[in-house]
Amino acid sequence: MGVVLLMLGGMHFFNLYVFTRMRRRATLAHLPPPVPAMNRASKANDILDTL
Description:
Helix content: over 70%
Radius of gyration: 25 Å
Structural class: mainly alpha
Shape: rod-shaped
Number of strands: 0
Order of helices and strands: HH
Strand content: under 5%
């Protein structure tokens, strides 16, 4: 009986792992594209040039 419970517990946690990865992969497909990086160094130089 103990071995059966250990096997069921192992299968349960494996299923949690698999379904979490499936959900993460599905939600990544619907995310908006990342925001482009801002060039802070060039903006800082522009501000300093106007002073």
